[in-house]
Amino acid sequence: MVNGGVELDEFRAPRPVPGWRVLLTTFCMALAAWGLGFYSLSVYVQYLSASGRFPAALLSAATTWHFLVGAAALYVVEAVAARVGRRPVVVAGVLLMAGCASALAYVPDAFWLFAAYAGMAFGWSAISGTAITQIIGRWFHARRGLALNLALTGASAAGFVIVPLLVGSIARFGLGPGVAWVAGSVAVLLLLLIAFNLVEPTAPPAASPAAGAAGAARLRLDRRLVLLCALFGIGWLAQVAFLAQQLPLLVPKVGAAVATLAVAATTASSLLGRLVLASFMDRIDHRRATAASFGLQALGSGLMAVSDHPVAVLAGCGLVGASVGNVITLPAMFAQREFAPAHYGAVITRIWSVGQVMYAFGPIGAGLLLGATGSSVGPLLACMLCQALAAALCFLRPQARGA
């Protein structure tokens, strides 16, 4: 964005204080969403199955159900947000996420277990990637890439902030009270931030209903959007498959101690990769950046597939982790640069919903392949092929239909 021939820095003007407050709130939204609704899913499976109340297979199915319901819920959440505003939807999402996560230890049977996971899915849809991208999109344009990457750094931080808190709380207070204490504390903090910080821009962008309806019709026929959904869906499928099965894949290769260190290396690399790309994301070609990100993941997966050396495994995890966070930020750059401003929200919602349906089958797919082959080589090579395909799709640029 240019103002009088000078590039506008939205971190300083024209609304520096509210913009920074909104950025802090979205960072904490990401911390809560990924902390309670993504990274902690394996914690719920571990402790609920250990309690003997539900078999691990049923809990794994509930996790897939959570992702699938979340994909469908995105459209409901965005429709409601368009009618009543973003803030009440986010508040409802926080309450659903915390309440349903706290209820998992107390549900009496499978029906209520799946109902609780469905409630978490609606909460996830209301406070995670699509909602954060929409909020940042209202406040930032020229520096949107930097702002969005900083906000979604909360997703990377969730893995080493919320999960250890959750495990420690469960160990001290027991499953039910432990989850409730962490979820409740996160909810109270986030609700306070929302109450004071989540404000609307003084001059929000307007789009006529007729333009919106016509735009939605064109988007359904837009081959660019179909390709983007495939690109990110395939890449995220491999990414989530690896992250969800990282310990089972790596322990047979390098042992539990090195595998645990590899998980930490992946998380640290993810945070570092976000911060590095954030500094120049608004000035680089988004397609090349996406191709490089998935290319790094393919290289890392391939390295782990062919070598059992601890250094190679740690390096592979570092390569995968370096772009784990960035590839959930980059869809916003495609939406901003390749589509009309009025279509920004619809493009983001479509990419995230289709992508979530696809990556919902990543963990179970990697687990089945690992069980069938008895080796981590097959799943890692499958991840590498998906990541390489996603990188290659970045260079296809079909013309818009009906543009």
General shape:
globular
Put simply, the count of helices is 17
Beta-strand percent range:
under 5%
- How many domains comprise the coordinates? 2
Question: What does the main sheet amount to?
Answer: 2 strands, antiparallel
Descriptive notes:
This protein is an all-alpha fold and 403 residues long. The chain has two domains: 15-201, MFS general substrate transporter like domains (Growth Hormone, Chain: A); 210-398, MFS general substrate transporter like domains (Growth Hormone, Chain: A), CATH 1.20.1250.20. 79% of the residues lie in helices and 1% in strands. It contains 17 helices and two strands. It has helices at 16-37, 41-50, 56-84, 86-103, 110-127, 129-139, 144-173, 175-197, 209-220, 223-244, 246-278, 286-306, 310-324, 330-338, 344-359, 362-373, 377-393; strands at residues 2-3, 6-7. The chain has a two-stranded antiparallel sheet with strand order 1-2. Helix 4 runs antiparallel to helix 8 (175-197) and helix 14 (330-338) packs antiparallel against helix 15 (344-359). It is globular and about 50 Å long. The model is unreliable at 1-8 and 203-217 (pLDDT under 50).
